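Bit of a strange request maybe. I'm writing a small parser for structure token strings and I need a real example to test against, not something I typed by hand. Could someone generate the tokens for this chain?
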Amino acid sequence: DPRNANDASNDNDRDGHTNQQEFLAGADPNQAGSVLKLDKSTISRDGFSASFDTVSNRIYRVERSDDLSLGIWTTVTNITGANKVVSIADALPTKAAGRFYRIVISP
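Reply from user aminoacidic:
Good idea to test on real output. This should exercise your parser:
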């Protein structure tokens, strides 16, 4: 129940995401397949691109890190949710061995 703070830390559908995380993402906490995820990600010589679903009244901050052990994340872009799929793009690093992405959601 989105109006009940007592079940925020539960994971009703057992998909590894709490009810609160799913509520913030606009996912259904009772359906395991309903989660926020990067879709259609591609890597080319031009860079990295991906898309994901958004919901209204949320701000999505896409971040990247070239080294997870440092705990440093750089903002790639901020997106205002609009109940549609959005696409992001980022240039590839010139010297990093890998690159990691995450989406941070603000209500």
